[in-house]
Amino acid sequence: KNEVEQSPQNLTAQEGEFITINCSYSVGISALHWLQQHPGGGIVSLFMLSSGKKKHGRLIATINIQEKHSSLHITASHPRDSAVYICAARPNFGNEKLTFGTGTRLTIIP
Amino acid sequence: DADVTQTPRNRITKTGKRIMLECSQTKGHDRMYWYRQDPGLGLRLIYYSFDVKDINKGEISDGYSVSRQAQAKFSLSLESAIPNQTALYFCATGGVGETYTGELFFGEGSRLTVL
Predict the structure, then answer these.
(1) Residue A90: closest CA among B54, B95, B110
(2) Burial environment of residue A94 by CB neighbours within 10 A (0 to 12, 13 to 18, 19 or more)
(3) In this complex, is the C-beta atom of B17 within 8 Å of any C-beta atom belonging to chain A?
(4) Exposure on the CB side of residue B73, measured as CA atoms within 13 A
(5) Model confidence over B63-84: pLDDT tens digits?
(6) DSSP code per residue over A78-95
(7) Cβ neighbours for B39, distance < 8 A, ≥ 6 positions apart
(8) Which of A42, A97, A99 shows the shortest C-beta gap to B106?
(9) Quick one: closest CA in B to A95, which residue?
(10) Which tens digits make up the pLDDT trace of A29-47?
(11) How confident is the model at residue A23 (pLDDT cuts 50, 70, 90)?
């Protein structure tokens, strides 16, 4: 069982819908990363957070340390948001060794 | 130009061949990483380096070796490739010294197929 679990694995939505992707982890962490992987394969870092909430444009990431849970929200979704979204937990110790989720494949239909 | 560049982007090779994947970065970062991505699995760390004299094994280093030729260059070698090393490989970099935040910057990936 992966120490980082994402849900859903796949998500298809209409353009304009509000999107939520969830990430649960079982280890103590110093930070939680959200990454975006486009169909061409490249990976871009979206957020790194250790508490509270961060916002960048239409993307919002939240984390609840007590519940070991993080969410990535996309407001007013657009087809260009179609990608795989990956969360990764940076542990408190040995923290070069991130544990990655398997990703959520998001498809936004025009 | 990309800040983290991987070459080759795609490679098909045969079992037993030696393969090198190269990574170069213009971000001035001291930390560099090699990850492997397989379908249905999360990225896994192969090797990481804090500088040219500091190289560390990750979770899945067996069958791989690395070389940090300079601060900007980190190469991954498969001495004798085998089919289960078929995967998408990513190089990543992170921060400088005390300004390191933990954020990672990834290359575009190198798709390796071992027949």
Answers:
(1) B95
(2) exposed
(3) no
(4) 8
(5) 999 999 999 999 999 999 999 9
(6) -GGG-EEEEEEEEESSST
(7) none
(8) A42
(9) B102
(10) 889 999 999 987 789 999 9
(11) very high
